[in-house]
Amino acid sequence: MQTVFEQYEKSSEFLVCVDSDGCAMDTMEIKHRKCFAPEMIKTWNLFEKEDYILNLWYDLNLYTRTRGINRFKGLAETFKIISKEGIEIKDLDSIINWVETTNELSNNSLRREIEKTDSEGLKMTLAWSLAVNESIENLPQDDEPFEGVKVGLEGISKLADISVVSSANGEALDSEWNRHDLVKYLKALLGQEAGTKQHCIAELKKKGYDANKILMVGDAPGDLHAAQNNDVNFYPILVNKEGFSWERLLNEAVPKLIEGTFDEKYQNQLIEEFNSSLK
Ligand SMILES: [Mg+2]
Fold first, then answer.
1. Which residues, by range, are in coiled-coil regions (predicted)?
2. What's the rounded Cα separation, in Å, for the pair 128 and 132?
3. How far apart are CA 12 and CA 10, in angstroms?
4. CA 199–ligand 1 middle distance (angstroms)
5. What is the pLDDT along the chain (279 residues), one digit of tens a residue?
6. Which of 21, 64, 92, 193 has the largest CB neighbor count within 10 A?
7. What DSSP string describes 162-206?
8. Rounded distance, CA 57 to CA 44, Å?
9. 85 Cα to the center of ligand 1, angstroms
10. What is the 222 CA–ligand 1 centroid distance (Å)?
11. What is the DSSP letter of 139?
12. How far apart are the first and last CA of the chain?
């Protein structure tokens, strides 16, 4: 079977890569507010200081420089902070130790570690992670793309190839992008099975696009790093200003990319704005 990259055919000189969660699709707020955070409160019985802990979770995962952090890293960071405030988390050292040393932050790797250590903290972490998955599956399927996404993709697709580059699972991506009839604007829809974002951009680059004719569009510092590590341009979708960001992408950033005026000064200005939008 051919891989997605072998099948991929470049048809424009320009390539725009687009992240999905929190960038094109309005899915992050609901997942954190309805799934990740409340399941954490339940699993560790943190109701007593619920409001403080919830706000800390939202800050770490949505509104600060750690936006988009892996779920287990987010959990360990939250627990480190609240344990300093005197809130006791059972067997916290095992959780922190696993998060900091494992080479794979996944449920399967967590299961293997539990077999080895029989750690209570890790068992609770797995129970939480599975409960989160289940509650995400049970969310009403009424998530929408952000304002300006459809018009943006339609306009950009006339000027450049577009590929989704996301770390979400491929099935969920397929379902979301098809449900909103956005797949027709794409050359490829790449999820976690295709590799990390950095890897996907590197593979697409090999199709013959010049680095300065590639733009990565994302909402989290991880997207910026994936772009920078490939020497390609980055455009931020700013939290709570997604509609504005998409409009400016279509009317300013992509035209600059095409005209060759997406220069260092413009890039730095965008990155500065991005950094100051996350506390
Ligand atoms: Mg994102």
1. none
2. 6
3. 6
4. 16
5. 678 899 999 999 999 999 999 999 999 999 999 999 999 999 999 999 999 999 999 999 999 999 999 999 999 999 999 999 999 999 999 999 999 999 888 899 999 999 999 999 999 999 999 999 999 889 987 779 999 999 999 999 999 999 999 988 888 899 999 999 999 999 999 998 898 999 999 999 999 999 999 999 999 999 999 999 999 999 999 999 999 999 999 999 999 999 999 999 999 999 999 999 998
6. 21
7. EEEE-SS-HHHHHHHHHHTT-GGG-SEEE-GGG--HHHHHHHHHT
8. 14
9. 30
10. 8
11. S
12. 45
Distance from residue 185's CA to the centre of ligand 1 (Å) = 19
Q: How far is the CA of 110 from the centre of ligand 1 (A)?
A: 24
Tokens of 185: 């604007």
Residue 161 dihedral angles phi and psi, to the nearest 5°:
-75, 145
Domains of the chain: 4-26+145-277 (3.40.50.1000), 28-137 (no CATH)
Cα of 32 vs centre of ligand 1, distance in Å, is 13
Q: Output the six-digit token pair for 158.
A: 């006339």
What separation in Å is there between the alpha carbon of 91 and the centre of ligand 1? 31
d(CA 126, CA 112): 11
Cβ atoms of 19 and 223 within 8 Å: the answer is yes
* Amino acid at position 124, single letter: M
Class of residue 134 by CB neighbours under 10 A (exposed 0-12, middle 13-18, buried 19+): exposed
Rounded to whole angstroms, the Cα distance separating 37 from 112 reads 25
- Find the 174 Cα to ligand 1 centroid distance in Å: 16
**CA–centroid distance, residue 68 to ligand 1 (Å):** 6
What is the whole-number distance in angstroms between the Cα of residue 202 and the centre of ligand 1?
Answer: 18
Backbone angles phi, psi at 210, to 5 degrees: -70, 145
